[in-house]
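Hi F.,

I've been meaning to write this up properly since the lab meeting, where we talked about keeping a consistent format for the predictions we share between groups. The idea is simple: the sequence comes first, exactly as it goes in, then the structure tokens exactly as they come out, then a line or two of notes. No screenshots and no reformatting. I'm using this chain as the first example so we have something concrete to point to.
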Amino acid sequence: MIDQTSPEAIENKRTHWHSRRGMLELDVLLVPFAQEAFPGLSREDKDRYLALLDREDPDLFTWFMEHKIPEDPELAKIVAMVQEHARQR
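Output, unedited:
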């Protein structure tokens, strides 16, 4: 059984909460990713995802609806991972 008070469990819960954006189009991508994929990511990819969550919703919407790709290659990588996770669900 996983200790729900461990730093990792707390980070996972916090990330799940921050993935809820209040915009349906983003929530259907980010919340499942946070629940299903985030716990198994490498530390580098977790950091990329957390950096992504710091961005504004209009930027996220533009990237996830494939209107633009983030200029930052690190953000572009995690956006692609979230999109791929959504396609495989």
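Notes:
The mean pLDDT is 95.
The chain has one domain: 7-88.

If this format works for you, I'll send the rest the same way.

G.
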